[in-house]
């Protein structure tokens, strides 16, 4: 097509794709398993931060699945997938804000011991995923969104551990609420970065030719 650069249609580098695909499958399995662990622990402990982190694990598992699906597609399709992932992260942030307000109004005090144990397990899982995906952080918006998700998760887990310590020390739910709010901010910030990067790629990528 006239006026189109080669990179407009080029999928992920063939030398990178097998390694990235393998890393995404491992990340998908880890995130799905941790979602099941944290959703149960969050309900049992009455922790807004753990429930927020559980939903984050679920969203990331879905995002890694989308990334696997679009890995060999054109830049335009991958950018469109990134827009979807950015919107998902934004929705997650809004859900956490609503849930945090609910916990604030009900005055729930979560179980600090459960928060600490599960938060530590989640941190180990997310650091492993982030280390695996670090090499792909400078790719297109789709690859960058995967890295941003894993980075935000590891930061969020550190905050959950801090909240567990705060709940244990104060006997109140305020540290849990504060951490849930921080995680919402991370999700909204990450969503904005992904959407901005994807929209820039969509402006560069050519539109598909109309059917004859």
UniProtKB/TrEMBL annotation:
Listed GO CC annotations: membrane
Main location: membrane
InterPro entries assigned to the protein according to its UniProt record, in alphabetical order: Cation_efflux_TM, Cation_efflux_TMD_sf
Keywords: Membrane, Transmembrane, Transmembrane helix
Pfam families to which the protein is assigned, alphabetical: Cation_efflux
Organism of this sequence: Magnetospirillum fulvum
Bilayer topology annotation: Multi-pass membrane protein
One GO MF term attached to the UniProt entry: monoatomic cation transmembrane transporter activity
Cross-referenced Gene3D superfamilies: Cation efflux protein transmembrane domain (1.20.1510.10)
Location in the cell: Membrane
Annotated Cation efflux protein transmembrane domain residues: 24-202
Name of the protein described by the UniProt record: Co/Zn/Cd efflux system component
TM ranges: 24-51, 57-75, 82-102, 114-134, 154-171, 177-195
